[in-house]
Every structure is written in C-alpha cells, then in structure tokens.
C-alpha cells in the first residue's frame, strides 16, 4: 500500500510500505476512506516531537471502513464505517477508568502517527479498536466526521471545558486556525457574552467571524490589551485560550485575562515559553494544559448528526489520497493558500 512516511525533520515521502496486519486480539484493520492533516503533523516535521522516529507513517485523524478484526473484538464488524479517534484507549487502566484516555497507561493514548504507524495511508492497524473507533450513522458525511477525530474534541475539552467558559463570559481565542475555529464553535454552546478572536491573517479573522466570533483583532496592528480592556471595564477576559503553540501567544494569553481568570493552553509547543510569575502570582489565575482525552467524541458526534455543529466550512481544500504531498504543501502555507483543514479521500 501507499503511505506518507516521516523521514526526519523537514522530510516526508509518499511511498510503498507493507500492508498492516493484525498483531493483537483487539486490533482492527481499517481501509482509509478519508483523512486529514493536523498542525501536530507539521510540528513533527519541524522536529518538535522527538518521539517520532524516521520511518513512521504519520496521521491520527481518519474515517474508514473496517476490513478485518482480531479475535477479541466484540462490537465492530467488517464493512462498518467508523471514525478513528486520535486517541487510543485500552479501556482498563486507572486513567481509562477515569475517562482520561489521553493518559492511558495500557498501551494507548496518542499513539497513531506518534509511537505506531498512523492513518495517512491506504490501510491502518487500529489497536484497542472496540474502545478507539466510533461507528458513524449514514447521515454524517465522512468529511464532517473527520473533524471529530481530533480538533473538535480537543477544542472542546482542552480549550472550552478546561477554560471553564460560562454564560456571560468574555472569551479570547488566540489563533483562528482549525483548532481556534473549533474552539469558537464549541464555546458558543455556553453562551459567552463575547468571543474575541486574534489572528494576523485576514482570511482567518473572516473565518472566525463567520463561525461566531463577535470581534476579531489583528495582533500585529491592533492594541489588543487596550481593546479588550475597553470591553471589560479594564479587567480583562474571563478566559483566554491559546490555540497556536508559540511562546509569544502563550504569554499574550496570560496578559489578557482578569484576576481570577483562566488560561487554557491548547497549542502544541516546540519551544519554551516564559511564565511571568513576578506579575502573575498575585492574580489568582488558573493555567491548564492538556492532551485531549476524547471522552466527548460521542456527544459531539450526536450534536453533529442533529445539525448543532456546523463544521463543513472548516474544510477548505479537497484532494485525492494520492495527492498527499500536494495537500501538505498547501496546508503548511496557510498564509498564502488560505487553508484551514484539508480533506483527502480515496477515490
């Protein structure tokens, strides 16, 4: 089969590899029908995730059709269309029993495209398949479902829930890429009075406005602290959500929240960020980080099926699976291409 293989920092190839095989009783082999690229994949290619070794097939977000199952599989059947979660869950360890699947100690967690071969391929082996995939109803398109493998639960759990967004709040979302837009969509479920999106790209600010931001600002030209101060009687936001993964955006978030406020870090960081405790110790801030657990995926999929989460516009570019290299070229240059999420389908 063909797959996108990481060859070291800055190097990737679409090449022939061996077909995956059942290795453990709880495995399933899934034919990939649709797949996307994550910002985390770009961090891997930049060398920010040293656990990923050359030769690894990348990718952790896909929809596919079950082709084969191991002898311990109890729920899945060949022919079912499923969402492959970015997080695998053994279902038995202490963390899984608390629904903290991202911290699974039984061999799961974020493993696809990280510690084992991922989904940017024609077929993929999915461990712990009974607890790590979600059967999809016919009413949900594969393209829409793709966004619930990672970015929707990540934005909702690590951004909105960790940030304790509540009715009447002022919420600042720093970064209006795919994760930032998903954060805006899911923050709206809690009726904040204002959602303010920050991004230097005009196309992404426009997308943020379309997806529910009440105000968009350009951090390169707008005096962001002053504007937010004007809207909050000088106090600052209740919650600031970092959706970029850069030291400067993290530090900006800590500057924008009011005393007693919350900073929820969602972005993947490849460099150290400074925590200015000399200024922050007195402000009673809550700072959270997190790898998504995906405990919310089933709930979010039900909301998608009910038409409560309009996500179709988050996919801006469409390709055949065989056009993986071109899709990466477009996705990694959003300032020139306007790309948000890309969808690649087996045609």
Automatic annotation (TrEMBL):
<dbReference type="InterPro" id="IPR013149">
    <property type="entry name" value="ADH-like_C"/>
</dbReference>
<dbReference type="InterPro" id="IPR013154">
    <property type="entry name" value="ADH-like_N"/>
</dbReference>
<comment type="similarity">
    <text>Belongs to the zinc-containing alcohol dehydrogenase family.</text>
</comment>
<keyword id="KW-0479">Metal-binding</keyword>
<keyword id="KW-0862">Zinc</keyword>
<dbReference type="Pfam" id="PF00107">
    <property type="entry name" value="ADH_zinc_N"/>
</dbReference>
<dbReference type="InterPro" id="IPR011032">
    <property type="entry name" value="GroES-like_sf"/>
</dbReference>
<dbReference type="InterPro" id="IPR036291">
    <property type="entry name" value="NAD(P)-bd_dom_sf"/>
</dbReference>
<dbReference type="InterPro" id="IPR002328">
    <property type="entry name" value="ADH_Zn_CS"/>
</dbReference>
<dbReference type="Pfam" id="PF08240">
    <property type="entry name" value="ADH_N"/>
</dbReference>
<keyword id="KW-0560">Oxidoreductase</keyword>
<protein>
    <submittedName>
        <fullName>Alcohol dehydrogenase catalytic domain-containing protein</fullName>
    </submittedName>
</protein>
<feature type="domain" description="Enoyl reductase (ER)">
    <location>
        <begin position="8"/>
        <end position="344"/>
    </location>
</feature>
<dbReference type="InterPro" id="IPR020843">
    <property type="entry name" value="ER"/>
</dbReference>
């Amino acid at each position: 089969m063909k797959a996108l293989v990481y060859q070291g920092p800055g190097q990737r190839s679409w090449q022939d590899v061996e077909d995956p095989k059942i290795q453990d009783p709880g495995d399933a082999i899934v034919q990939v029908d649709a797949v996307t690229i994550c910002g985390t994949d770009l961090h891997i290619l930049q060398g920010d995730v040293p656990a990923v070794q050359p030769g690894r097939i990348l990718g952790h977000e896909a929809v596919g059709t079950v082709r084969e199952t191991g002898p311990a599989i109890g729920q899945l059947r060949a022919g079912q269309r499923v969402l492959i979660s970015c997080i695998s869950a053994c279902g038995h360890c202490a963390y899984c029993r608390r629904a903290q699947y991202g911290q699974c100690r039984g061999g799961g967690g974020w493993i696809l495209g990280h510690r084992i071969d991922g989904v940017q391929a024609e077929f993929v082996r999915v461990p712990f398949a009974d607890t790590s995939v979600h059967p999809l109803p016919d009413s949900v398109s594969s393209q829409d479902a793709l966004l619930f493998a990672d970015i929707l639960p990540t934005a909702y759990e690590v951004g909105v829930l960790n940030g304790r967004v509540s009715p009447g709040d002022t919420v600042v979302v720093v970064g209006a890429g795919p994760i930032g837009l998903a954060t805006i969509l899911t923050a709206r479920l809690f009726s904040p009075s204002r959602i303010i999106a920050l991004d230097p790209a005009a196309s992404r600010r426009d997308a943020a406005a379309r997806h529910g931001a009440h105000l968009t600002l350009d951090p390169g030209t707008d005096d962001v602290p002053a504007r937010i101060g004007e809207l909050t009687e000088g106090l600052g936001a209740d919650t600031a959500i970092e959706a970029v993964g850069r030291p400067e955006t993290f530090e900006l978030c800590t500057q924008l929240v009011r005393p007693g406020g919350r900073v929820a870090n969602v972005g993947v960081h490849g460099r150290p960020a400074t925590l200015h405790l000399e200024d922050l110790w007195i402000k009673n801030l809550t700072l959270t980080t997190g790898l998504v657990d995906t405990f919310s995926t089933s709930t979010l999929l039900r909301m998608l099926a009910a038409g409560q989460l309009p996500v179709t516009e988050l996919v801006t570019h469409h390709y055949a699976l065989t056009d993986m290299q071109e899709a990466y070229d477009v996705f990694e240059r959003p300032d020139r291409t306007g790309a948000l999420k890309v969808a690649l389908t087996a045609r």
